[in-house]
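U., I forgot to send this yesterday:
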Amino acid sequence: MVAAGEAARRLGISLDTLRRWDREGRIVTERDSANRRLVPLAEIERLSAREGRELSARNRFPGIVREVKVEGLLAQVELEAGPFRVVAVVTREAVEELGLRSGIPATALVKSTSVMLER
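Result:
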């Protein structure tokens, strides 16, 4: 068993995300005598081993890629997400790995000042 803060660090998520996952039943926790969350190591292993780990970004804008401009090592991706137009500058490698091109579905993930794309 590890404390919730240590479990969150090992999982690469925030403590708030771990608490939310606990409330939603996405992670199994136990409580100590002081009512603090403890996470079994087996739970950390289960969540660490899953394919395509989820990100803690809550602001997701699913949409359609409208334009991809590649120049050198960088690329500009324009996504039409409902009434929103999201433009992200990412690496050329990311565009190639995700297979981003005009007309395909993708999702912009917005966390703080960063925009990430997933497909």
